[in-house]
Amino acid sequence: MTDRSPGRKLALVILVALMLAIPLFCVYLLVYDRQSQSDTARASIAEGWGGAQTAAGPLLAIPYAEQVTETVTENGRQVARVNTVERELILSPDVVDVATDLKPERRSKSIYEAVVYEAANTGTARFSLPADLSRQGVSRDRLQFARAELRFGLSDARGLFGPPPRVDADGRRLPLQPGKGPMETGGSGFFAWVDASALAARPMRVSFAYSFRGNASLAFAPQAGDTRWTVASAWPHPGFGGGFLPVTRSVGADGFRATWRIGNLALGRALAEGGQVPPSSAPVTASAVEVGVATHVAGTRDARVELVSPVDLYAQVNRSVKYGFLFIGFTFTAFFLFDVVGGVRVSAPEYLLVGVGLVLFFAMLLAFAEVIGFTPAYLLASLAIAGLLSLYSAAVLRSRRRGGIVAGLLAGLYAVLYVLLSLEAYSLLIGSLLLFAALALVMYVTRNIDWGGLRRERAGDPAPAP
């Protein structure tokens, strides 16, 4: 590069920087691969514990017989037949009050960690027959109250543990059966046969308590005329999502407490729905994929709380890799200025080795972060790469002072990158200002450089004839 013009040197430096896009992209793919392995390991840790749970209910299903006229063809003639079909009236409670005590637990396997929980649901509900039941096409005299069922939903019923669920109707303990959960939980859950004959004269009161396990998140699918759901937990980093946010919440270092209040008008559903076909009484056994789909059947009509990990190291490493060209660009700019302004010749292989060291930082950051956490890994990897490149720069630039300038540049870059990763909302603003300042400095330092030798040629041309 000794005899090349500054413009050609710049073109060669840009070419080397573009070549480094290949290993930088490989590191980017490595982050995704390790994140996929981490997700697989977390799923393995939580296997058999219970998936991301969605709870629903209670609902009261009352069977009734309906006469259906069908027209069939027999011997070339159309004949009308009257068949008796069994259907169900699905009643949502007028009011339901559910309290959930959520106990989180960290479980680890090798270098991977998953957050699981044990939840205890206790609550009460009140059912009554609507005064305008006839609008549903159902008459009271056809309702078979003695064959009614109370249904509760849990998207992954494998998570039920501890004492058997307790369900009382008007003070009477009810035996439970598996299956027949509401649609919002994909049919997974449990139910109890109940004689609801008293419902024709007065409201029926139900109390219940059950415990279950899950991981990552817990959702509740509201169905009542007035749903009140309160969640208390020692987890200090909750995330609130779903279609409804809590009306009150308090979050602190010792945990959180949140309360949702949801009405059926907001849900867009009536408290009584007639003409439902009875589901199968067989217990539901679902695969992990089916359980995951059932968890979100309710769509935007559920309230959800997530046990968020405060630091997602893969997301942070992924974001840091996106700033790789910023590191390469600033460092190469410093070397280039030493070359064209300071007169210190830097060869293409030396640019390449420095660039490989800068890319290696992100691979080291990922490797260390999985073991010791992001912040210690960042400090360790940045000190190692900055020290290595500073010593190499002192030898290449033939000056300890110039090596110290490179060390200061790298220290500043690593400090700025850490700030950008911490202040996600202002990362674009800070990065733009930093690039503006760097461009202004380069333009000032190189303002007198003859990039293509054109000034020398013009200086040597004879003056034009008058």
Count of alpha and pi helical runs: 11
Number of domains: 2
| Topology, number of strands | 17
Q: Tell me roughly what share of residues is in helical segments.
A: 25-40%
Low-confidence stretches: 282-299
| Average pLDDT figure | 82
Largest sheet: 9 strands, mixed
Shape, per Cα inertia axes: elongated
Q: What fraction of the residues are assigned to beta strands by DSSP?
A: 25-35%
Alpha-beta content class: alpha+beta
Q: What is the radius of gyration?
A: 34 Å
Distance between the termini: 41 Å
- The helix/strand order is HHEEEEEEEEEEEEEEEHEHEHHHHHHH
In terms of quaternary structure, the protein is: single chain
SSE blueprint and pairings:
Blueprint: H1 6-19, H2 21-46, E1 53-74, E2 77-91, E3 95-109, E4 112-127, E5 148-154, E6 166-169, E7 172-173, E8 176-178, E9 189-194, E10 204-215, E11 217-221, E12 226-233, E13 238-242, E14 248-252, E15 255-263, H3 264-267, E16 272-276, H4 288-295, E17 303-307, H5 313-321, H6 324-340, H7 348-372, H8 374-396, H9 400-422, H10 427-445, H11 454-460
Parallel strand pairs: 1-11, 3-12
Antiparallel strand pairs: 1-2, 1-5, 2-16, 3-4, 4-10, 5-9, 6-7, 6-10, 8-9, 11-17, 12-15, 13-17, 14-15
Helix pairs in contact: 1-6, 1-7, 2-5, 2-7, 5-7, 6-7, 6-9, 7-8, 8-9, 9-10
